[in-house]
Description:
heterodimer, A: about 375 residues, mainly alpha, ABC transporter involved in vitamin B12 uptake, BtuC, two-stranded antiparallel sheet, 15 helices, 4 strands, B: about 300 residues, globular
Amino acid sequence: MRIELIRRPQRSARMAVLSPLIAIALTVVAGFVIFAANGVDPVGALYVYFIEKLTAWWSIQDLIVKMTPLILIGVGLSLSYLSNTWNIGAEGQLAAGAIAGSVLPIYFPDWGGPLVVTLMLLMGILGGMAYGAIPALLKTRFGTNEILTSLMLVYVADLVLDWVARGPWRNPAGYNFPNSRQFSDNQLLPVIAGQHVTVATVIALVVAVAAWFLLGKTLTGFRIRVLGEAPRAGAFAGFSRNRMVLVAFLISGGLAGLAGICEVAGPLGQLRISVSPGYGFTAIIVAFLGRLNPLGVIVASFVLGLSYLGGEGIQSTYHLSDQIARVFQGMLLFFVLACDTMIFYRVRIVSTRRAPPPAAEAVRESA
Amino acid sequence: MSLPELQGLLLTIITAATPLLFAALGELVTERSGVLNLGVEGMMAVGAVIGFIAGHVTGLSVVGVVASVVAGMAMAALFAVVTLVFVANQVASGLALTLFGLGLSGLIGDRYVSIPGLSLERIHIPGLTDIPLVGPLIFGEDPLVYVAVALAIAVSWFLFSTRAGLIVRATGDNHVSAHALGYDVIRVRFLAVIFGGACAGLAGGYLSIVYSTQWIPNMTAGRGWIAIALVVFGTWLPGRVVVGAVLFGAISILQLNAQGYGVSLPPQFLNALPYLTTVVVLVIISRNRTLLRVNTPACLGQAFVPDR
């Protein structure tokens, strides 16, 4: 038996919609097997993982809180990947944004109010942009592989964050906990619903819609797509590849930085040694599950946000490691990527044993 | 520094370099066939946890080592199916493999955290190993160090002196021509990816069985990524990869010992050293474009769908 791919004359619009759904279905099936293998009632566990958190208002709030950074980062990464620029260091840019955005509340604890919060967000964006610019400039100046450099810088950023939170910025009255001072209320993003949903969620949705507009309706968006899909054509049209690498990193880095400061000035309320449970990496999956479409990213962040909560639910109900969330996330990305093949190819299973040689087939057809 | 101290330092440097060398050699062969597998970190993580558990359960470190190899191969097979059969994007699939592998290792290893494990005896040849300084370094390592050195020589010989190696390189440099000559591109790549997985799994097993003799979450700590960088650093040549692995082993050990030498930087900055060095080294290497162009597999990262 062999699997054969036959190129479709044009991409299948039906499969473009179906493939993420198939991928999610396959993930659920694989999850069933994993739970059963761990000696856990699979049906109950799947309920806890995917449904339970949608049945209470407090956990829906949690979901929205988790979706917000995923949307922000996922939108940026979508633009980056569309232009064929591989920023996989969003987790580091997030940390850079969290640090840069915290400068004001740490050094000027008495400052507060809408203007200060706005400045904090801007500094977060700038921090992420600056950190994202490093791999971009190394790529454009020296041709250094941006995948490896952006990833290496994640470890560096996390260590710097660890240092500031334990060292110079540690709360002197904090009983040696590795946290900064708790930000005061007027240094935090305003809450718009429930206890935790802040204005950051609105910002994320606006960013997604704006990015969708940028991609579909503007020349910049056209450049991004041309340079991603047909770099030679882009070069002939005079679009600069180097410029695009820089733009892609600045946008995706800036949005990751924004997500970072929104976490600090939102759900966390202080700078900690760790400000993200891997949002920067999970957002890579969000981008692909969302078909690199900013609006699709919103839907995808719902699924991946749920996967975080599901992992916590499984841990508390069945005492499995919450790492199960990363297993689900990784599997989902695998299935999404494999299913995407069906958009451009028809998949045919041929039995190798009885297949007649192609020449004979051709003769029979012409006869 | 006294002689025993120097000897101890050199021994630990070699122990730190060995897992990097295993993983990098595997990735080198994979990339030579034209496949970019960014999942080394994930394969290593699973190799580490499976190797540790297998050793712990059976009480035999050899079983642990074999199990880590098999685990790495299984992870690589997953990647191979997705990228070679379903021609998925290799960069994204590699990231998926890393995320999946790190999660899976955390899930599997949850109950084995910090349990003291087995270790691998260093060999001892009476007379030879007892020579001061050089004796333990050359005749007193653990067996896997010798395996790593032999593997480096074998990979170099295979790629550049055998017909099969030539086919692997041809597949990586021009898959259309290789296919036209009648070679099964997908099959060659599949085998190369599996070999890479075996090596990455072994690297992980080395970490949990020999290097730390215990399993802790995220113990790979970016070594898989450094191994990928080493392949670029070594411009896809096994000899240079050996040099790179020793260099990085030395940096990670010096960083651990730096505080003992009276360096008063915050530990976080010292910990960042291997990652920063990777970036710097990549920049230096990539500035020399001709050096890279000669050896970079021309079809690296490109999917191949055979015409019929």
